[in-house]
TrEMBL record:
Feature: compositional bias, Polar residues: 1-30, 388-398
InterPro entries according to UniProt: ERT1_acuK_gluconeogen_tf, Zn2Cys6_DnaBD
Residues covered by region (Disordered): 1-64, 105-163, 212-245, 260-398
Gene Ontology molecular functions: DNA-binding transcription factor activity, RNA polymerase II-specific; zinc ion binding
Positions with biased composition (Basic residues): 105-119
Taxonomy, superkingdom: Eukaryota
Record's compositionally biased regions (Low complexity): 126-149, 214-233, 267-276, 287-313, 335-349, 373-387
Domain Zn(2)-C6 fungal-type: from-to ranges: 70-101
Protein name (record): Zn(2)-C6 fungal-type domain-containing protein
Keywords: Metal-binding, Nucleus
Length: 398
DNA sequence: TCATTCGGACGGTAAACCGT
DNA sequence: CGGTTTACCGTCCGAATGAA
């Protein structure tokens, strides 16, 4: 009855999920397969007990221990899982066969950060700590902080290479291959990093090397990262099962961020799994989801949160309007390699050729404009700055 | 009373940064 | 190159809500 954190007692000795001192009625458990399964990650099944309670430092409340990879069911239910594969919860609900490891997204790469604030060891911890909390002087000339709404790019616009393989299998991860070409730091850098406020005072935004190319790359990028507003109601799966419908919020996140890459990824995996004959309801579930995603019209929806990244391209007003016109119909096909998934996700409307030529033209224009720009530095720059400061984003100002 | 849903705190860890 | 810092992203606690 004490206010003792759940995990504190739960993870201690007997009642913990790990070796089956689980809260689950033993009758159920008895039918279960022995909780001895090597994890996909190659981790041993019961790490928690071992390190969960250091026991030496008794005073501080033990940290919550998480499994490396929850099963899909638990994941959707936001419930505690286990390393054992038919995990206790699934066993309990009799859905053991759908108990499979969830797939982790590949972590974003290429996210630029501002300079680190040096946190010296423990000399003046007091001062530093306070300093830490309040976070360094709000120096304007610095990418102050990522968490600032201005800085955080709407997250990487398009998905990852997504040869994914979950974290457990480093091998198949091909670091972007061709993708790398398209996806590059400058384009996904937090805007304020690119156009550092400090530099503003210098009167010229510092573009990263290769800004010229990135210029054209940005276009495709920006309409992405959004997704149709939540009008997808899931099919009829799972409305009664212990596998809840996915969190909407969560779903959104995932969808929004995975957009391109991930569904490819899943397709791959699904194929794999299917070939292995492991098509469980869970997989079907995913399939359905992704089909739905793909079928979404994927409206360009130029608004929402992107007053961020494109500010830097606010210069070149002429181009801007050009791209304006060009972006509208354009759904969102940044698609790095144009060959992979574009086919699936592009709505039937635009012939890709057209798009391609548009891109080409646009890029030409961009480079041309840039050259022109560098020839006549002043006017345009101030121009852009004005537009930057004044109205961050003319085209979708609310 | 039990089950389900879900917001958000928390934890783990990969990736970026940075001094050497 | 290795240590440090940062933040992405997954896990799951616990309150709210619903169903039996
Ligand atoms: Zn589970
Ligand atoms: Zn499970």
């Amino acid at each position: 009855m004490q206010s003792m954190p759940y995990y504190q007692q739960g993870y201690q000795t007997n009642t913990s999920y790990s070796n089956n001192g689980s809260p689950v009625p033993s009758s159920v458990l008895s039918t279960a397969a022995p909780p001895m399964m090597t994890h996909a990650n190659g981790m041993s099944p019961h790490p928690q007990l071992g390190e969960a309670a250091p026991a030496t430092q008794s005073q501080q409340p033990p940290k919550r221990k998480q499994v490396k990879n929850a099963c899909t069911n638990c994941q959707k239910a936001c419930k505690k899982c286990d390393d054992a594969r038919p995990c206790p919860r699934c066993i309990k609900y009799g859905i053991a066969e759908t108990c499979v490891n969830s797939v982790r997204k590949e972590r974003k790469k290429g996210i630029k950060r501002g300079p680190y604030k040096r946190r010296q060891k423990e000399e003046d911890t007091s001062t530093t700590s306070s300093l830490l909390d309040s976070h360094q002087p709000p120096q304007p000339g610095q990418p102050a902080h990522q968490s600032s709404p201005y800085m955080r790019p709407p997250s990487m616009a398009f998905g990852y290479p997504s040869n994914l393989n979950q974290y457990g299998q480093p091998t198949a991860y091909d670091p972007y291959g061709s993708y790398a070409a398209a996806y590059h730091k400058d384009q996904m850098m937090p805007q304020s990093y690119v156009v550092n406020p400090m530099y503003q005072s210098m009167g010229y935004p510092v573009l990263m090397p290769g800004a010229a190319e990135s210029q054209q790359q940005q276009q495709p990028q920006q309409p992405s990262s959004q997704q149709p507003p939540q009008q997808q109601q899931h099919a009829s799966y799972a409305q009664h099962s212990p596998v809840p419908q996915p969190h909407y919020s969560l779903l959104h996140q995932q969808q929004s961020s995975r957009q391109f890459g991930d569904h490819m990824l899943h397709q791959q995996q699904q194929q794999q799994q299917q070939t292995q004959g492991a098509s469980s309801p869970a997989h079907l579930y995913y399939q359905q989801q992704h089909h739905q995603q793909q079928h979404q019209p994927s409206t360009p929806q130029p608004s929402s949160q992107q007053h961020t990244p494109q500010q830097q391209q606010r210069h070149l007003p002429d181009i801007k309007e050009l791209q304006d016109g060009f972006m509208k119909p354009q759904p969102m096909t940044p698609v790095p390699s144009a060959s992979t998934s574009s086919g699936t996700s592009t709505p039937p409307e635009s012939t890709e050729d057209e798009d391609g030529s548009k891109y080409a033209r646009l890029s030409q224009l961009c480079t041309a404009a840039l050259h022109h720009n560098s020839n006549t530095p002043n006017t345009t720059t101030s121009d852009q700055q004005n537009s930057h400061a004044g109205s961050p984003n003319p085209q979708q100002q609310s």
